[in-house]
Design a protein that fits this description.
One of its GO terms (molecular function) is ATPase activator activity. One of its GO terms (biological process) is protein import into mitochondrial matrix. The protein has 5 helices and no strands. Helix 3 packs across helix 5 and helix 4 packs antiparallel against helix 5. It has about 140 residues and is an all-alpha fold. The mean pLDDT is about 80.
């Protein structure tokens, strides 16, 4: 089984059987050293990758609520954002969304009169009852 491409194996096959066992034990520390070096490099790379991960800039996260100011004339898009629905949502779902948002922002429960009027205006715009800018404020 000697191969011209493997000079170490060729030299070991020439030796007597007693000497072959001696050379096989000499390779074990070499392999152990290579394994330790590979583990050290992998650990170093892992630490560098972790530090780069921690130092990355924060990414934009999904926000649950609309964070913009109000436009002078409310559009269907703005009304949908206020109520948390799509512009093509059926009327019964719009009314449910209006009720849910209004409970959270009703003036009797400590909410703002301005926000309550904007929520009502958003419902009217989506349902097509007014053209917008019907806010009392």
């Amino acid at each position: 089984m000697s191969s011209p491409f493997c000079p170490i194996f060729l030299s070991l096959s020439i030796l007597s059987s007693d000497r072959r066992e001696e050379f096989s034990f000499m390779g074990t520390p070499l392999l152990a050293g290579l394994a330790v070096a590979a583990a050290a490099y992998a650990g170093r790379y892992g630490i560098q990758a972790w530090q780069a991960f921690k130092a990355r800039p924060p990414t934009a996260r999904m926000r649950k609520f609309y964070e913009g100011g109000f436009q002078p004339t409310m559009t269907k898009r703005e009304a949908a954002l206020i109520l948390g629905v799509r512009e093509s949502t059926p009327p019964d779902k719009v009314k449910e969304a209006h009720r849910r948002v209004m409970v959270a922002n009703h003036p009797d429960a400590g909410g703002s009169h301005y926000l309550a009027s904007k929520i009502n205006e958003a419902k009217d715009v989506i349902l097509g009852k007014s053209k917008g800018s019907g806010s009392a404020f």
